[in-house]
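#struct-help
A.M.: can someone run this one for me? Single chain, 388 residues.
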Amino acid sequence: MKRELQGQYVTVSTTGESVEAFVPSPLPPEPPLDWSPALRQKFDEALLALGRLDSVSVLLPDTSLFLYMYVRKEAVLSSQIEGTQSSLSDLLLFELEEQPGVPLDDVEQVSHYVAALNYGLERIREGFPLCARLLREIHEVLLSSGRGSDRNPGEFRRSQNWIGGTRPGNAAFVPPPHEHVQDCMSSLERFLHDEPEPTPTLTKAALAHVQFETIHPFLDGNGRLGRLLITLLLCSEELLKEPMLYLSLYLKSHRSRYYELLNHVRLTGDWESWLEFFAEAVTDTAMRAVDTVQKLIALASEDRDAINELGRVAGSVLRIHRALQERPIALPKWLGEQAGLSPATVNTCLKHLERLGIVNEVTGRKRRRIYAYSRYLDLMNQGTEVPL
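D.P.: on it. Structure tokens below:
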């Protein structure tokens, strides 16, 4: 449905020139959303896919094993959209305090994303509402050090920003002036809390994401936090029990269409086109996640069967194998601590796993060797190899 401009332009003077900045109207849209049969079917499909994703955790012997890696995959993808060159393997090596072969700032940025997501989820589990204050807290963790740490972490901006272009005058989009940010975020918070009227969770996530990106309330980190907002909202309203839906791979693969729709909504009020795209993203992403879980379960089962053929040492090897499902790149010392085994036993187990083709040593060193559960890592790596 075509509506009027979803906000108003105000003239602002910044960097020596006058530009038109966009201040969005409060949510929900007016007139109300037009739920055509086709749009309703797309959302029904998305909700069905989410239900399958939520239930797939029952198949996992330990959901935390999957989530540890899946959260890190999302961190890599979301940061790649912002231009980092870090890979999943780089992040895992960084967490081992091994220097990866990429700029340290890139890996730090991804690591902070993991910390920010975990912080937000923990606060929500403690009963803290998803609100502007929590988003500021998460932002402070996201930009706690390294790149962006000088951009007022945890504080709404007090100056004008813009998206695209070398200056506001040739920017692709100029968000609201800084003096409007607090009011815009307060309005968004009320919408998140079902004021002035209740909104179904998945619809709320779709609308809130656009609104957050339009407000662009921080000097840096808005894209990453806007994508985190989707998952945090689904978990806070218990549409998902675990944080298992991340749209960054889909948005990375459809980046041009994504940015085009964000602008299209602002100019024409055609929220329905955005909702169709969002529902397709949720369906595709959830189905991919279910497929990945099933493949990981099958791989782990196949490898356990091979390990059980080892005889007396099988029990110890299985403990190392389980630890590798949590961290598929690991040092023998960490594996031993997780499995409760001596260094000598760990080394024996790793030799068995190498002989079976389950792990391989990746450094070629004699000391501080690092072992990779390669096929497991390959499954998790899909989509993260090269930024588009």
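A.M.: thanks! The mean pLDDT is 90.
D.P.: also worth noting: The domain at 7-291 is CATH 1.10.3290.10 (Fic-like fold).
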